[in-house]
Write a structure and sequence with these properties.
The protein contains seven helices and twelve strands. It is of the alpha+beta class and 233 residues long. It has a five-stranded mixed β-sheet. A three-stranded antiparallel β-sheet has the order 10-12-11, with helices on one face. The longest helix has 17 residues, at 167-183.
Length: 233
């Protein structure tokens, strides 16, 4: 293999779609049948996530957690799609084992109902930069892509092979982005639903003076560039 070929292969494997870009489209065989993305998910948020391999301990705890929260995500108009570089037969056997044998915390007899992509040829994983050779050239890292109803990538988080994801944060971030979209606001550090949000900075000093003058019980300005307000229930 020439040096140029090595470089090209590396770029193909490592290219990670960026925030604000359209999510790469794909068709895939899954544990829930064939899917076509984004056509099958129009008007919905999607969390597309990868795991290193079936029948591995950390991945098992993660899939049980995702499955137990599927209804919570659906209430937020969000669907889940999993992926690993395993066959559909392996996926089905692993998910059956999870349902029949595995207990984790207060979870047992958990049935994974969201689609899990079989990606033996790494076609989808490479499109999303899920295979990172410095970590492993045969397994996908723990990637999480947040994709909005317009099929635009809004956020992405990568975890190492050895550490499970924080699912409370995954849900919190989804709600924060939906809140920002709906109300045209930003959210401060550690924001939770029901807390005050940040009003985007003004475009002029005149707007800043007006903002400070309008401050009240539901509108608090620390300075012209930092104002908080409450949202409707």
């Amino acid at each position: 293999m020439t040096e140029n070929c090595k470089t090209a292969c590396c770029e193909e494997t490592m290219r990670i779609p960026l925030i604000g870009e359209k999510a790469p489209s794909f068709q895939a065989v899954t544990t829930q049948g064939k899917i076509s993305f984004p056509d099958d998910y129009k008007g919905k948020w999607v969390i597309l996530f990868s795991h290193p391999a079936d029948f591995t301990p950390v991945c098992t705890t993660e899939f049980m957690t995702f499955a137990s929260m599927q209804d919570e995500f659906r209430e937020l108009n969000c669907e889940l799609i999993g992926l690993s570089i395993d066959s559909n037969f392996s996926h089905i056997a692993w998910l059956r084992t999870i349902k029949e044998k595995i207990k984790f915390r207060d979870m047992e007899k958990i049935e994974v109902k969201f689609p899990l992509i079989a990606d033996l040829k790494m076609e989808v994983a490479k499109k999303y930069g899920m295979v990172q050779p410095s970590a492993s050239d045969t397994q996908a890292v723990r990637a999480v892509f947040f994709i909005d109803p317009e099929a635009t990538i809004r956020a992405l988080v990568y975890y190492p092979l050895s550490n499970g994801r924080n699912f409370d944060e995954i849900k919190r971030l989804l709600i924060a982005m939906q809140t920002s979209d709906k109300h045209k606001v930003a959210t401060p550090a550690d924001w939770r639903p029901g807390e005050k949000v940040i009003v985007p900075p003004p475009g002029s000093y005149g707007q800043a003076d007006k903002r400070v003058a309008e401050a009240g019980d539901d509108y608090e300005c620390q300075d012209w560039f930092l104002c908080f307000k409450s949202l409707p229930e």
